[in-house]
Amino acid sequence: MPLTGEEVEETITSLRKDGKSMAAIGLILRDQYGIPSVKLSTGKSVKEILANNNLERRLPEDMSALMKKAVRLKEHLYRNSKDLHNKRGLNLVEAKIRRLEKYYRSRGNLPEGWKYSIDRAKLEVE
Asked: What is this structure's pTM?
C-alpha cells in the first residue's frame, strides 16, 4: 500500500532526525519505500519539507562535504608537508568552496557575514 503525502513527510522528518542527509533520504525513500519522487507524492521537495519543519542544516550539504575534504587534506599536509599532489588538491577544493560561497551568498543561503577559512571549517565540520 503506497504512503500518503503526510506519511512521506513524517518519514522524511524522522530520517533527518536520525542524521541522514537530503541525498541519503532520497535514496532511502526510493529504495526502501518505493517512492521515486517526493515532489510527485507530496507537492514539495525534500528541502522544502525540511525547511517547514526547521530541520535544515546551517550550511548546504555540498559545501559541508567539501569543507570536510579540505580539513582532511589539511591534516594530511600537516603530517606530510612535501606532498605536492595533495597540496594542489587542497587548493582546488578550497577554490570550489569559494565559488560555492559566492553562489550561495548571491542566493541568500549562507548566514550573514559568513566567510570560509580552514579554521572555521574545522569548527563547523567536526
From this structure: 0.78
